[in-house]
Inverse folding.
């Protein structure tokens, strides 16, 4: 009995700490994806406006890569636990544009994860090449410590 009491105390503290931290996914911060690209999302404002910076690890010409701005929106549903979002990246080193859309989830291990799908629009010189100018892909982001 004397020995069981501290154990119960530790257990209740652990459970109490758990219930105090709601399972929420917050877009603000620095993220890395499955390709080794990183992005930083600045604090989202009260209307859901979202801005940040993207460091890609991949490009058709990787020696030209530069940090590029991103701009978009986050949905502010109440309560904001696992918000949907979308943003555009303006690649500063090419004529391409990428749009991302996704959702900020808390996975079964309690870890925040961004599941996204993107469209990359390449610049082509004439309308005959339009058919090959759009690429699609997916990326999974986790928080970069
Ligand atoms: C997300 O995190 C930022 C910075 O840590 C904080 O300012 C903001 O209030 C958080 N947003 C929500 C919805 O919890
Ligand atoms: C992104 O790149 C900039 C400039 O190269 C660098 O200063 C910054 O630390 C990088 N951020 C991340 C999260 O990789
Ligand atoms: C992303 O961040 C990691 C860790 O700081 C760094 O090693 C890597 O070079 C960064 N990648 C890019 C593309 O900035
Ligand atoms: C890639 O970018 C570098 C630096 O801007 C440039 O010198 C080189 O010619 C480019 N290569 C191609 C294949 O466009
Ligand atoms: C978007 O990228 C282009 C380079 O392609 C640059 O000239 C322009 O200033 C950028 N605009 C913004 C708002 O970042």
């Amino acid at each position: 009995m004397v020995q069981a009491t501290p154990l119960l105390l530790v257990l209740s503290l652990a459970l109490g700490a758990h219930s105090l931290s709601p399972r929420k996914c917050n877009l603000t911060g620095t993220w890395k994806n499955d390709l080794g690209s990183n992005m930083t999302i600045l604090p989202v404002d009260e209307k859901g406006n979202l801005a940040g910076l993207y460091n890609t690890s991949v490009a058709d010409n990787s020696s030209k890569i530069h940090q590029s701005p991103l701009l978009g929106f986050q949905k502010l549903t109440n309560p904001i636990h696992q918000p949907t979002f979308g943003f555009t990246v303006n690649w500063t080193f090419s004529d391409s544009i990428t749009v991302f859309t996704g959702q900020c989830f808390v996975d079964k291990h309690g870890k925040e994860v961004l599941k996204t799908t993107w469209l990359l629009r390449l610049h082509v010189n004439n309308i005959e090449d339009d058919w090959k100018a759009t690429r699609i892909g997916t990326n999974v982001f986790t928080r970069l410590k």
